[in-house]
């Protein structure tokens, strides 16, 4: 295994995120009536978290991933 500097990791994350967003971003989608709706969604990237989170943490995660188009976020509070 080769060690890499932290800045290299940030550059790689940014590069890969940008490439995925350019390739898989869904701006509009047809509804059941055939009308085009703006959805601004990116289903190619997931948000992973831990199962034991505080409510405060659980509410802040979607607000930080939502602007990027990442839509699905699971929280164990529903269980």
Features of the shown structure:
single chain, 79 residues, alpha+beta, two-stranded antiparallel sheet, 2 strands, elongated
**SSE order:** HEEH
Biggest sheet layout? 2 strands, antiparallel
**Uncertain regions: pLDDT < 50 for 5+ in a row?**
none
Roughly how many Å is the radius of gyration?
Answer: 16 Å
Order of the strands making up the biggest sheet: 1-2
Helix tally equals 2
| Intertermini distance | 39 Å
* Helix content percent band: 25-40%
Shape: elongated
Overall pLDDT level: 78
Share of β-strand residues: 5-15%
Class derived from helix and strand content: alpha+beta
Number of strands: 2
Question: What is this structure, in a nutshell?
Answer:
This protein is an alpha+beta fold.
